[in-house]
Amino acid sequence: MFDINDICIIGGDERQAYLGALLAKDGKTVTYFALEKCGEAQPDYASLRFAVKGCDAVILPMPLTKDGKTLYAPLSDIEIPLDEELAKSLSGKRVFCSYGEKLTATGDYKSAFVYDYLAREELAVLNAVPTAEGALAAAITSSGKTLHKSRCLVAGFGRIGKLLSRDLYALGAGVTVSARKPGDLAMITACGYTAVKTAALEGSGKYDFIFNTIPSMIFGEKTLEKTAGGVVIDLASKPGGVDLEACKRLGINGFAALSLPGRTAPQTAAGIIKETICNITREDDP
Amino acid sequence: MFDINDICIIGGDERQAYLGALLAKDGKTVTYFALEKCGEAQPDYASLRFAVKGCDAVILPMPLTKDGKTLYAPLSDIEIPLDEELAKSLSGKRVFCSYGEKLTATGDYKSAFVYDYLAREELAVLNAVPTAEGALAAAITSSGKTLHKSRCLVAGFGRIGKLLSRDLYALGAGVTVSARKPGDLAMITACGYTAVKTAALEGSGKYDFIFNTIPSMIFGEKTLEKTAGGVVIDLASKPGGVDLEACKRLGINGFAALSLPGRTAPQTAAGIIKETICNITREDDP
Amino acid sequence: MFDINDICIIGGDERQAYLGALLAKDGKTVTYFALEKCGEAQPDYASLRFAVKGCDAVILPMPLTKDGKTLYAPLSDIEIPLDEELAKSLSGKRVFCSYGEKLTATGDYKSAFVYDYLAREELAVLNAVPTAEGALAAAITSSGKTLHKSRCLVAGFGRIGKLLSRDLYALGAGVTVSARKPGDLAMITACGYTAVKTAALEGSGKYDFIFNTIPSMIFGEKTLEKTAGGVVIDLASKPGGVDLEACKRLGINGFAALSLPGRTAPQTAAGIIKETICNITREDDP
Amino acid sequence: MFDINDICIIGGDERQAYLGALLAKDGKTVTYFALEKCGEAQPDYASLRFAVKGCDAVILPMPLTKDGKTLYAPLSDIEIPLDEELAKSLSGKRVFCSYGEKLTATGDYKSAFVYDYLAREELAVLNAVPTAEGALAAAITSSGKTLHKSRCLVAGFGRIGKLLSRDLYALGAGVTVSARKPGDLAMITACGYTAVKTAALEGSGKYDFIFNTIPSMIFGEKTLEKTAGGVVIDLASKPGGVDLEACKRLGINGFAALSLPGRTAPQTAAGIIKETICNITREDDP
């Protein structure tokens, strides 16, 4: 267990600004860097070194980087290379980041305390809520049919699959969920949905809505031809599990819906990051 | 009870094309007029008189008119005045329309059989489903917060209020519903929501999401100031029940979401119109 | 609007004792009469006249009477005739009762203020909650099958039908609901259930569980033969809507489950009566 | 994968009779032994040896034994010792049983093919459905309050905890669920319930209904004093997790509700065993 009081938030999208506001509300001192285009985050530091000076904790964005070289900072003109210099600046501090392994591979972080909030189970679970809601909104707005009384397929019964199938069922959809393990198939049945083995998807009919949550190529051209009767939404992180090129060829409305928490519910997503960071501070030091 | 077999669909938006497809699937002969910009509806008649010739039934669009003078036909360059000539063309036929009173006021329809599908209770009820889904999507995409764990207020416990509050509750929102009658307030409680008298709305706290379904000015400036803590969506038909100008002044994200069935689920909406027309044909002649 | 402060509770089952406790918790002075076998209610008055002396309000039980002649008082050896003397004793007081018309027919109540709480819509609605829960428990314990994945029929879409079908659906049952009006049938569909016209019940297949809520003979021998595939529970007040004799002849497990609020949830039922009485006091005098 | 065609069902309660009926419906030849008091199962074999002769599969009951020495056979006067002779009789056959290890410890089963259906994940999951329903019925009938609007605590978020909390939430209860892992606590929150760490149960308030699913002593006297405000139901298998003696001392209505699938839904439970056995036959030989 440890305390963090002076926190510097570096880079990221509007979630990080919301995150800062939540931490400030808890009585923390919050400074921002590389967020100057975000109205609410008011960074007034000339350099990262000044910004982090006096801080005991630093929060890096989600994702950590998009180009593999610089910190993800879409609301800033400042470029922050992921390099040895950054590592030096963060020396001795608590560093909360996503993709911790990637970060520590870019410099010497041995003298810092690096925590990967993205690796935490509770963040993944709680993020499944805005993901499921974002998927519902995408489905409703992209089809001429209602979810109610439609035939929906959710591929995969992990965190997102569990919450999304629950939401769809509650909205009156006919819900089929695919999984591989007998125990999962039984739980799908127990929840009131129709269970189908992932391997038997092709023979299970056509669906008005397909939601894929499995990050491997489940919906290739052949499977799409047999199952897609409307909209196909890929929720699995890249490279995803739906052949979107095949969708085009087949005239199917297929698309990926990624990073839904940050896009459709940044305020809630910020709260989730905050809660996860708080959980980390409440646990034993690593 | 009566049969309709040769049906002419005149004007309207893409719902009418879907409607034609559904009727054709049931074995009806369907012709279209004033829908030539809609790919699927293939009208090839030079004039309305030719188009309706041989038909025993005619379906007019929803809404009937937007300008009060001509039939609503956004997918056509043809202008069809609501006049005595139209009435003459439809003489002797079954005419299914919305706003039947408005139609019959524009000409002599005594020799036709006019049915108002919009006046039917089942159409109103079934349309509440796509309306509720459209409202969910609007809420999800317009706020930085999830519905889950949010504070939602549904003003009014009619058809839309009933279904929308049910959906919100299922998605994990804290749901407060306002009504006036003790019986309705009791049913709101029985459904697991928090009941509040419409007159006592102002003292009931702030809400992340407000959905108004009451077609009279409930959310004026003063009430908005006390209750609006996020998004305010007006689902009530014009003139609505939310002072959108006051929203602007107060910096509140308030907007009207109208005609949701036709906009977010035209295919389902077409099915609802079809079912309603079928119900009418199954009943006794008027 | 008016206040009641000194309240005498006369007769009734354990609900009335719970009711007294709730009123006492609200700061009311509560005395009991004809409840001496109920541990918690401590009546120590020699006669009804003494008991009601000083009271401004009297609460009579639900039901008012079982034999038509004396007040319902199963927890007492005292017999209280419904007669002119009772009316005289209650002169000038607020009298809250069930079956107000029956009461006022037994004596001269013109000098009392008689309120019929049983006639209130909110009491009927709120009582539907314990009724639905009691029906669930009766169904679960009387059948070898789970409600989950069973075929359930709810006859009638009134207060009990609405809540019970909602509960069954939530527990994973396949729910069919019967009604007569197109608007109700549409709402049944909108809620995600299967709608069937009451007149067409016979052709709708066999059900593992049938719940009747309609107080007229819906399930006669012929209908039972065609629809009853398991348990048949009659929730409609007498004379009910299920021919229980025919059930016996057909070897069907059919039974009536009446007065469920008082039987399975007397504490909640007492709270409902209390709330209804409070609502009455908050309204204008009659 | 293998076929079973001639099946002998030995001992057990009425579930086994239902199981036989289901298998017969699938075209299997079914014989019974040690079930002679069950009307529907017609055993007409003088000895177990004759009964199993010609069978390729044998199904033993759940539980396997109650006294540790003889097969569980409450519907029979025949006593079947779990001994070497039984093992010999079953030689060469497919033996489906519960507690496979206990069985194989009682004799030489090397020449038989022993499958433990009770050890299968899908059976445990599917049995959680009748368990949850049985728990609902027990709660409804043992308390003066409705589940609706009550405060419920479900201790443990395993199979039963997941389904039961879902059911309670759907019935309008306020649901708190306890767990230990941050990921589980997050999923509890994501499902719309209140999450509480098992270690922090005592400080979480009083509950109208407590359902324990954890098979270790969670609810000792001290915890009961702080949390039990009504009924306490222990669903965990022996030795359970509620100190029932302490309940008595504290005047709390506490009781264990065990073997609910077999007791409240034997027909469904039989179907679950059948499905599990079918799954086993569909998989590779061990």
Q: How would you describe this structure to a colleague?
A:
The structure is a homotetramer of 286-residue chains. Chain A has eleven helices and eleven strands. Chain A has 286 residues and is of the alpha/beta class. In chain A, α5 crosses α6 (159-170) and α5 (121-142) packs antiparallel against α11. In chain A, the strands form two sheets. Chain A has a six-stranded parallel sheet, sandwiched between helices. In chain A, 37% of the residues lie in helices and 19% in strands. In chain A, β10, α9 and β11 (253-256) form a beta-alpha-beta unit. The first copy, chain A, has helices at residues 14-25, 48-52, 84-89, 100-104, 121-142, 159-170, 182-190, 221-227, 244-250, 260-264, 266-282; strands at residues 6-10, 29-33, 57-59, 94-97, 113-116, 151-155, 174-179, 194-197, 207-212, 228-234, 253-256. Chains in contact: A-B, A-C, A-D, B-C, B-D, C-D. Chain A binds chain C through residues 148-149, 172, 189-192, and chain C through 148-149, 172, 189-192.
Give the beta-strand count of chain A: 11
**Coarse shape of chain A:** elongated
Q: Specify the structural class of chain A.
A: alpha/beta
Order of helices and strands of chain A: EHEHEHEHEHEHEHEEHEHEHH
Question: How is this structure best summarized?
Answer:
Four copies of one chain form a homotetramer. The first copy, chain A, is of the alpha/beta class and 286 residues long. Chain A is built from eleven helices and eleven strands.
Characteristics:
homotetramer, alpha/beta, 286 residues, 11 helices, six-stranded parallel beta sheet, elongated
